[in-house]
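WARN no homologs supplied; continuing
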Amino acid sequence: MKYSIFSLARNALSGHRRWPRAWRSPAPAKRYDALIVGGGGHGLATAYYLARRHGMRRVAVLEKGWLGGGNTGRNTTIVRSNYHLDANAHFYEFSLKLWEGLARELNYNVMYSARGVLNLVHSPADMDAAMRRGNAMRLNGIDARFLSRDEIARWMPNLDCSPSARFPIVGGLLQPRGGTVRHDAVAWGYARAADALGVDIIQQCEVTGIRVDGGAVAGVETTRGYIAAPRVGLAVAGHTTQLAAMAGVAMPIESHVLQAMVTEPVKPILDTVVTSGAVHFYISQSDRGELVMGGDLDFYNSFAQRGNLPIIEHVAAACTSLFPSFGRLKVMRTWGGVVDMTMDGSPIIAKLPVDGLYMTGGWCYGGFKATPASGWLLAHTMAYDTPHELNAAFTLERFAQGRMIDEKGAGPYAWAH
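OK structure emitted
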């Protein structure tokens, strides 16, 4: 402990110039056994599990900017597994179990906080849907508990549970194990752990083309030269369509802007995540005291990491409708992330029609909570060239075959991110 304190003080006084790097910054080699395009949580997790679970050491992560500069650093940190359909329920529950042990796995504090995720119910139809979803969760071994309006009112006195509320509250479905995780810590933890296993993490290296030879991947063109590899995994969130097109693969995906915002920090006032599908709103409080909130898409196609004022106005109005006292707080900053929307609201974690090309994407409103399972399963698929049973349903071909996984409550329309 003394060494740690003195080390912190010494590095603080030196302006952090002597602080050891958490991972290397190597020049790209000419060839790897596998390449991961995208240095966010999903890409770094994939590289880590390829090295850790499958013994692949000649792996590189290629990131056009900096680690966590995309959606990993632009989400609202919520993790949950409160899904209805079996494929999603089993997948996200696997992910939540990985979250629960991730700090120990990586030897890095990712700040998982099981503060609960409460989905508010506003009408008899909402009540029926919540009961159906909660029962489905329990049948799949996932924790779920229905709360009455009085229980919610005692728990959260700042929430307007009065009969005259703009959106009357009649109850709520709680997943106690849901909560939040520190998003940048996830990227840093996976990066450090992957680097320690020999993975090359190469930043400022944009992929400009994918070379295909005889129907199989041969490598990628980058701003730092050509890199050969027989396996390439795409983990680029909202830019999946652009990267897949480089290999001649068309994706059933649209990219949209999803905004969020935080208020000035205040003392602890909200100790859970609260969401409302009817209001299209979700809110939680960060460890620094900021109220983190968001709502719906901007509903225009874009690759820009910024949004427009109408959604900010909507989020502010929703917040003050549910929590009137929060109207006195100042908004400190807003941001936008690029989300890739599939036609059925469920992801694609699969082999693509080009041999050696794989992807994880199509996460719609909630890719962050899927991070560890996404990386674990993409690594499995790349290592064995076949899916695991947990991602077997999340194929690209399901859209042509009519096997949709239409989780109607996957986003803020019913349960919020």
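The chain has ten helices and 19 strands.
OK
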